[in-house]
Amino acid sequence: MKCFACKAEIQDYSSICPQCGKDPQPNPYEVPKVGVAKPAGNPSEGDATGGIIPYKNPKALIAYYLGIFSGLPFIGFFLAVPAVVLGIMGLRDRNRNPAIKGSIHAGIGIGCGTIFTLLWGSLIIVFIISALMGRL
Ligand SMILES: [Zn+2]
């Protein structure tokens, strides 16, 4: 028979090849192992899912939803501030580990959060000032 590893002609049923010292029999566990490892280690698959929704970056994901819902009146102010904070935290996590993605979601969270923090914040200030003016 031929050695599976080095293709040297060797005695049948040898457990160790005299030429290369490896197992001359083809390892039945080696073939499925490679087949399973290939799709799991495929980086493009992880990019596809990670690029649309950054499941591995929950801070950026939460910041994104908080940023969107911070447009709601009254409760928006209380969502806008954590949207900015979580967005910055999500961006930091992404910079530490770019594979987790989420920079777009974090950016939307920070952008919307900043706009609505200023909007609702200034409305609250205007409301307080007008209340004080009315009292004086
Ligand atoms: Zn061999």
Explain the overall architecture.
- This protein is mainly alpha-helical and 136 residues long.
- The chain folds into two domains: 1-41, no CATH class; 54-135, no CATH class.
- The protein has helices spanning 30-40, 43-52, 58-69, 76-96, 103-135.
- Helix 3 runs antiparallel to helix 4, helix 3 (58-69) runs parallel beside helix 5 (103-135) and helix 4 runs antiparallel to helix 5.
- The radius of gyration is 30 Å and the shape is rod-shaped.
- The relative contact order is 0.12.
- The structure holds zinc ion (ZN).
Summarize the structure in short.
With 136 residues, the protein is mainly α. The chain contains five helices and no strands.
SSE order, one letter for each helix or strand? HHHHH
Low-confidence segments: 32-51
User: How many beta-strand runs?
Assistant: 0
CA-atom Rg in angstroms: 30 Å
Helix proportion range: 55-70%
Structural class: mainly alpha
Summary keywords:
136 residues; mainly alpha; 2 domains; 5 helices; 64% helix; binds zinc ion
